[in-house]
Design brief:
three-stranded antiparallel β-sheet, single chain, alpha+beta
């Protein structure tokens, strides 16, 4: 996670996950790999299959651009050979990886309520960190970029929806017996993979 720059009008200084808008190139990218059936089915509730794949690719591209971490598999040969890759994907390919789109797990979608002067419509994904390659080196868009445990992240300056998504993740990732799980935990677990609307 990293803090949004003070110059941002929307949520300045708040800690967020890397992310950004879908580019046309993300929809047209001819690289191997598909989303899992479960992730695709979750996304098909609001978009078509082409857009669903683009959302996953955007998550991987934006993470690479904003953190320097490539979520991918080692490529047998350079993807730039014989393939006309868009500029936005050339750095990722040059690092020697293909995007691990099949390893993305859909967490939730968050939409700010109608009527707000500034709104967002964001999907959240998670991936096994062992598939992330490189060193954390931000592009400057996010400040104080670093890894945080879930407990530490929940103590950072966060937007309400970011805190909610972190709670959903924490309860989803809890291990061990389900005995003793309270009603609140069950509600958080039930939110995993859902479409959340942030109420202010």
């Amino acid at each position: 996670m990293g803090a949004r720059h003070s110059r941002h009008v929307f949520m300045p200084h708040m800690f967020v996950f890397p992310g950004g808008r879908v580019d046309d190139d993300d929809e047209d990218l001819a690289l191997p790999g598909q989303l899992t059936s479960a992730t695709t089915q979750a996304l098909l509730r609001s978009v078509d299959a082409r857009r669903a794949r683009a959302l996953g690719l955007t998550a991987i591209r934006e993470t690479f651009e904003e953190t320097g971490l490539a979520a991918g598999y080692r490529a047998a040969s350079s993807l730039n050979e014989g393939t006309r890759l868009p500029v936005s994907w050339q750095g990722f390919a040059a690092a020697g990886f293909v995007p691990a789109i099949d390893a993305l797990h859909y967490v939730a979608r968050a939409i700010t309520p109608p009527g707000n002067s500034r709104r967002f419509d964001a999907r959240f994904f998670m991936i096994d960190a062992r598939l992330l390659h490189g060193a954390v080196a931000g592009s400057g868009e996010l400040e104080s970029l670093d890894w945080f445990t879930l407990d530490a992240a929940l103590k950072l300056p966060l937007g309400d929806i970011t805190a909610l998504v972190l709670e959903v993740l924490r309860h989803r990732l809890e291990t061990g017996s389900s005995q003793g799980i309270d009603q609140r935990s069950e509600r958080y677990r039930a939110l995993f993979g859902s479409e959340l609307i942030e109420h202010l």
